[in-house]
Amino acid sequence: MSSSHSPSRPVRAAVYGNGSWGTAFGMVLADAGCQVTLWGRRPELVDAINSERTNPDYLPGLELPDGLRATTDPAEAAEGADFTVLAVPSQSLRTNLANWAPLIPQDSVLVSLMKGIELGTAKRMSEVIEEVVAKSPLGGTPDEVRSRVAVVTGPNLAREIAARRPAASVVACADGEVARRLQAACHTAYFRPYTNTDVIGCELGGAVKNVIGLAVGIADGMGLGDNAKGSLITRGLAETTRLGLAMGADPLTFSGLAGLGDLVATCSSPLSRNHTFGTNLGRGMTLEETIAVTRQTAEGVKSCESVADLARRHGVDMPITETVVEIVHQGKPPVVALKELMSRSAKAERH
Q: Is 80 contained in some domain?
């Protein structure tokens, strides 16, 4: 696929969403030499980013690079963008993208930073992007759109990346050449991207780890110890891999950065929103109380239902995911849910 930018001008990137991960990835792109325009909904936050060179709501105290500016105008952000990065909450992607799609250049690479599964449709984020963009005037056929949809995923806690602490990631696209272009556009001294063509596996790793992160957080909140944590992480990875195999993913993806790497970071870091959310539930807070003290979207809270839905559609057994749904959405006390999970019939590890 031909690139729209000539060597005479820098690579341009539009980032839709100025939360912590959208802003942090915008910083990575700018540090790698791209001209980045960050779109945000709230004028006061956009003004602060442009005038104070910081994002006070999501990444306070961190200075933004010169190559990054912000706007509230989605058309201005889209103009001449070689890469269009989508960093909004998963469940609002479809509605937002329907408005933005007609503005996006026809050969722009569409990059998903979102780790979720859409409620109701059980679609992965790349599938939502393909569906919405193919319907827009400049979209092209679903296959043409698919060849320019890429996913960035891995152990990427936004605060650490924004502080330029070392991290590796996966950039996945069905078209390996597009993945390599994105890799070049976001490769910095502290951010090391690897390419992959297994989009399904990479997206499932990112979506399911949020659910397992909730489970591990609940166990930590209940004070169950490190053996429980190690067991949940490992069995959670087994659940993810089972679902991935049923959906045609490459099993090796789940032992890489998009699988195990992301899972370990999410399940062991206090910076993880899903882990923190689960910890509060495990300590006895209600769902409403936990939501009230959570400033940003914990994707696993909604995605646990859509992941369970996806598993049922593919006939895959995901007991940890089902347990999280029962605790978060059906009000089952964590102590009871855990007892039921532990008393399931014994089986071989590789069943």
A: yes
Q: Find out whether 135 and 247 touch, Cβ atoms under 8 Å.
A: no
Given 209, 302, 339, 347, the catalytic residue: 209
Check residue 21 and give left, alpha or beta (phi > 0: left; psi -120 to 50: alpha): alpha
Q: How many Å apart are CA 197 and CA 181, to the nearest integer?
A: 13
Give kind and range of the element (H or E) at residue 289: helix 287-293
Q: Are residues 233 and 315 in the same domain?
A: yes
Same domain (yes/no): 53, 171: yes
Contact 304, 211 (CB under 8 A): yes
Domain membership of residue 140 (yes or no) is yes
Is residue 59 domain-shared with residue 168, that is, in the same domain? Answer: yes
| Residue 268 within a domain | yes
Residues 267-302: tens digit of each pLDDT: 999 989 999 999 999 999 999 999 999 877 888 899
Domain holding 142, by residue range, is 12-197
Name the phi and psi angles at 109, rounded to 5. -75, 130
- In this structure, are 163 and 175 located in the same domain? yes
The answer to whether residues 330 and 239 belong to one domain is yes
To the query of whether residue 347 is one of the catalytic residues in this protein, the response is: no
List, as one string, the DSSP characters of 157-174: -HHHHHTT--EEEEEEES
Please, which residues have CB within 8 angstroms of residue 184's CB and are 6 or more apart in sequence? 32
Reported as a single tens digit per residue, the pLDDT across 201-235 is 999 999 999 999 999 999 999 999 999 999 999 99
Which of 70, 107, 116 minimizes the C-alpha distance to 181? 107
User: Are 191 and 211 part of one and the same domain?
Assistant: no
